[in-house]
Specification:
alpha+beta
Length: 101
């Protein structure tokens, strides 16, 4: 659905994702405002739907975006993926304490 929409700006795609109940995880460049971002990572889904992880990055030509999605087969698989990211961050990047905003 979103991977086929490659002519929108990151802001247009993000607006569409948020209107459909998606949650913004981060903007690219990191910490940029939604207005100034050239990409983003978001997640969609809930208890009753499959989790979808989405990345969007504006192409160098600024004419379109590249969108990639991962549709997880279940919420359990999504949770395992999140746990593995967390464990990797602790083990490989020596993060001692994690705070959530």
């Amino acid at each position: 659905m979103f991977a086929a929409k490659n002519k929108d700006s990151p802001q247009d795609l993000l607006k569409d994702v948020l209107e459909r109940g998606g949650r913004l995880l981060l903007t690219i460049p990191f910490g940029s405002s939604e207005k100034d971002c050239v990409g983003f990572v978001a997640v969609m889904g809930s208890r009753n739907t499959l989790p979808v992880l989405m990345t969007c990055v504006q192409n160098v030509t600024l004419e379109k975006c590249t969108v990639s999605t991962i549709v997880f087969p279940s919420s359990e698989d999504y949770n395992k993926f999140c746990e593995r990211l967390y464990v990797d961050s602790i083990n490989e990047f020596q993060i001692k304490e994690v705070g959530f905003e």
